[in-house]
Write a structure and sequence with these properties.
Layout lengths: L12 H14 L5 E4 L6 H10 L8 E5 L5 H9 L16 H4 L3 E6 L6 H13 L1 E2 L8 E2 L2 E7 L3 H6 L5 H7 L2 E4 L10 H11 L8 E2 L1 H9 L5 H15 L4 E2 L11 H6 L2 H4 L40 H8 L12 H19 L4 H7 L4 H10 L2 H4 L2
Parallel strand pairs: 1-6, 1-7, 2-3, 3-6, 8-9
Antiparallel strand pairs: 4-5
Helix pairs in contact: 1-2, 8-10, 14-15, 15-16
Length: 377
């Protein structure tokens, strides 16, 4: 299972059409311009186009035009001769030469400086490169796949991108849909990345209301954001069934936190995927409003009613033959209470202290004692 497979998950109309378009474009030698928002998987599309092309046995050489300053980008693309500038202690083969008989992927082509765009256009028209600092012109046999999240037609009108280069690159346009344009694919992608990032096969899962939130969120970071969030959850809650509304806001994307607010909660629709089961009653975060915990000395365990202890522990209904270590058992319950209170109060220590009928300073001491501060809030 490859992380790259995620871009092709789902049976939405948008993805069905994208897969067909990729198959068609891969058979051609014409230039391809991959368009789409940041994080949709444009580089993965370029790999798929190359893998399905007649050049699949040749190299696929990527270069990010936004990550390299203009002067260095020229030398990276075309190479340079020894002594052509300070620091050029030997000849350097450029990306065009490296990609000969294969594919060159020009990522973020919209960020290429104007002066370099004219040189790129000349290479694409003549199919010959000249290394910086001299040397014999070298013919190249390279297919070009370019990609950008920018609006190139608008940049052409503003004089920021050459029109002739745009036409040269945009022979076969491939628009990659954003996640919000294929809502039905969100849960399969979440499930996919949950498995990819699982630690020791302890795959996370979600409650039904969590599935509704994941579906309702627009995912502005697209596939990359889904992968990031599933990795975060897989590290923090390995093997657990996650109920997103109980998590501290700092662990959630801002948009999901907004959906959880009273203003947006009523707009969240229900989702019923098979792999998202409703959380069992015994695992729900308890209602803390009727539980009273008195202020106490730092070294003592507060006197909870035994009925509440057994209800909250979800682990013991009678004493085993060997008995239990009461202090450790009560400490475990106390940790559960503190975490539940922090969840219900969205990470606010003051509010959590009020729910627990505890002094704020006492709660802070306990958070530090149980190392909850770095692991939970």
């Amino acid at each position: 299972m490859r992380a790259g497979d995620s871009i092709f998950l789902g049976d939405s109309d948008a993805m069905v059409q994208l897969r067909k378009l990729i198959d068609t474009c891969a058979k051609s030698e014409a230039s391809v311009l991959v368009l789409g928002e940041t994080g949709v998987g444009k580089e993965l599309i370029s790999r798929e186009l190359h893998a399905k092309s007649s050049r699949c046995d040749g190299p696929l050489v990527p270069i990010n035009c936004a990550a390299i300053p203009g002067a260095l980008l020229e030398s990276e693309l075309f190479g340079f001769a020894k002594g052509s500038f300070t620091g050029a202690t030997s000849d350097r083969v450029g990306r065009f030469a490296l990609a000969n008989r294969g594919t060159l992927f020009l990522d973020e082509i919209g960020d290429m400086p104007l002066e370099l765009q004219s040189k790129l256009l000349r290479v694409l028209e003549q199919r010959v490169i000249e290394p910086i600092g001299g040397g014999e012109p070298k013919p190249i046999d390279v297919r070009i796949i370019a990609a950008t999240h920018r609006d190139l037609p608008a940049m052409v009108k503003e004089g920021l991108f050459r029109q002739d280069l745009y036409f040269r690159l945009n022979v076969l346009p491939v628009m990659v849909p954003s996640v919000k344009q294929r809502k039905s694919d969100i849960l399969p992608m979440c499930q996919f990345f949950a498995r990819i990032h699982a630690k020791f096969n302890r795959t996370i899962s979600f409650t039904e209301r969590s599935a509704s939130l994941l579906m309702a969120y627009d995912w502005p970071g697209n596939v990359r954001e889904i992968s990031n969030l599933m990795m975060r959850f897989s590290i923090l809650f390995a093997g657990e069934k996650i109920d997103i509304p109980t998590l501290p806001p700092l662990l959630l994307p801002e948009g999901i936190a907004e959906l959880l607010s009273d203003k947006h909660a009523s707009s969240i629709s229900s989702a019923h995927p098979e792999w998202f089961a409703e959380i069992p009653d015994t695992m729900k975060v308890p209602d803390l409003s009727d539980i009273v915990v008195e202020a106490e000395d730092d070294n003592d365990i507060h006197p909870l009613d035994i009925e509440n202890v057994l209800r909250l522990s979800n682990s013991i209904g009678h004493f085993p033959s060997g008995g239990i270590k009461a202090k450790e058992f009560m400490a475990d319950i106390e940790i559960r209470l503190i975490k539940a209170a922090l969840s219900q109060s969205n990470g606010s220590v003051s509010h959590a202290a009020q729910l627990l009928h505890m002094q704020r300073t006492t709660l802070i001491q306990k958070i530090a004692r149980y190392n909850i501060a770095t692991a939970f809030i």
